[in-house]
Structure formats: structure tokens, C-alpha cells
Amino acid sequence: MSGRILDRTALVDFATSASVYGGAFLVAAVEMDIDLVAPVVALLDAWSAVPTPDRALLELLLETPLLRVEPLHAGAAAEAGIRAHDARTAGATYDAGSAHTVDAAMRLGYVVVTSDPGPLRVIDPAVAVEELPGF
């Protein structure tokens, strides 16, 4: 089974219907039985970014059997933290949600769905991304 990691921007796009592409991607994921993963830190960031009226759509997305939430256990926190440290040492800024997203993608071998690949590539330029168009 193939899979995709949903970063904060993708989760927000789906919840707010910011573009038609987020919804179309979800329909395709259902039809193609694609495993969808939301790293818990990216999910936290999405909850903080989604306006109250749109939170019901985020809740519905979380209830679908195709989506699973990737926890942040001690080992993953260490790996994501090391990636973020390396990026910061190189002079880049980063955020914890992007670090956890990249770590999950690299560990699982999945592609990240995003509307903004910049923060992900700061953490690791080699991370595979599928960019939602229209932004």
C-alpha cells in the first residue's frame, strides 16, 4: 500500500476547503486506498490554524478509516529534533511540525502532501513532496 503524509498546510486546506485540490486529493485517496498519515504535531498546528466554523471538517477527516495519526514518541522526537538541530545549525529556521512531518515521511517512505514545501525542505532537502496547486 502506498501512503501520503499530510502536513499542517494540507490538513488546513482540507478542513477549510481553501482549494478544490484538497478535496479532490481526498476523493482520489479513498478510491485508490492510499494510507494517509497525519503527524500529531502537524495536527496540533492545524487545529490552531483552522477557524472554529471549519473544525467540523477536520473532525470528519480524523474519523475516516484511511487516516491515522502518527504519534510523537521519544524515539521520533529525538530523530525529528536532530533533523531540526541540523537545519538550525545550517542557519535555517524550522518549526516542530515540519520536523515531525519530515521524520515520519522519511521513516515510512511516504510522500508529503503540502501547499508549502519550503519548511519541509529546510529540514531535509531530499524529502519527497506532492504540492497542492493553487497557492
Q: Would you kindly provide a written description of the structure presented here, covering whatever features stand out?
A:
With 135 residues, this protein is α/β, with parallel strands linked by helices. The radius of gyration is 14 Å and the shape is globular. It has a five-stranded parallel sheet with strand order 3-2-1-4-5. The chain is built from seven helices and five strands; from the N terminus they run E-H-H-E-H-H-E-H-H-E-H-E. Helix 1 packs across helix 2 and helix 1 (8-16) crosses helix 4. It has helices spanning 8-16, 20-32, 40-49, 55-63, 74-89, 96-108, 118-123; strands at residues 3-6, 35-39, 67-70, 111-114, 129-131. It has one domain (3-131): Rossmann fold (3-Layer(aba) Sandwich). The protein starts with a strand and ends with a strand. Helix 7 (118-123) links the parallel strand 4 (111-114) and strand 5 (129-131).
User: What is the rounded Rg?
Assistant: 14 Å
Can you list the strand order of the major beta sheet? Answer: 3-2-1-4-5
Identify the CATH architecture.
3-Layer(aba) Sandwich
As a percent range, the share of strand residues is 5-15%
Describe the main β-sheet briefly.
5 strands, parallel
- The first-level CATH class is given as Alpha Beta
Question: Which parts are unreliable, with pLDDT below 50 for 5 consecutive residues or more?
Answer: none
